Amino acid sequence: MSERHPQNNHHALASGHHEDAAHYHREASRHFEIGKDYAHAAHLALNAHGHSLMAIDHGDAALKRYTKAHPEITLPEPSAEVERATATAVPKTLATQHDAAAAHHQQAGHHLNQAEKHGRDKDYQHAAESLRIAQTHAHQALFHSNRAAQTYSEHYGRAGPVAEIA
């Protein structure tokens, strides 16, 4: 991606990547639910994973900009409330793992939008806090994505390039 983006657009870029990642996770989930074309589902999951990583990078950049431009911002470690809100049990099936990742991406996008609104209102403390929560959701989505990839490799990785179940 050689395209240059304005530095202050990290919220929108991260939110867009979360939206794309959620879409790809939902599509992968649907493929795993139907039980056909696992290779294509894995490809969709890989696209979601890439968007997850880009969203995290943009979220980190936005958070860094806030804390650098406004040294008065204090960000305590994520609270137990935030951790409870983002912690979910590890789903057992590939479809539910991708559904969990998609749900976290949706939440991350929501909190990024809140952060952007707070930033426009010059409420930088709340903007940074919303960004922190968004990043926590992003990392939870990545966790579920990684678990799905691990499960896929354990169960279908040796089945060949196209592992369809009739």
Keywords summarizing the entry:
single chain; 166 residues; mainly alpha; Four Helix Bundle (Hemerythrin (Met), subunit A); 5 helices; 75% helix; disordered C terminus
Q: Tell me the radius of gyration.
A: 17 Å
Low-confidence stretches: 1-7, 161-166
Largest sheet: none
Tally the structural domains: 1
Question: Which of globular, elongated, flat, extended, rod-shaped describes the shape?
Answer: elongated
CATH class: Mainly Alpha
Order of helices and strands: HHHHH
Strand % is under 5%
**Which structural category fits the helices and strands?**
mainly alpha
Q: What can you see in these coordinates?
A:
With 166 residues, the protein is mainly alpha-helical. The protein has a single domain, classed as Four Helix Bundle (Hemerythrin (Met), subunit A). The protein is elongated.
Task: Describe the structure in brief.
With 166 residues, this protein is mainly alpha-helical. Helices cover 75% and strands 0% of the residues.
Topology:
Layout (H helix, E strand, L loop, with lengths): L9 H25 L3 H32 L10 H7 L7 H27 L3 H33 L10
Helix pairs in contact: 1-2, 1-4, 2-5, 4-5
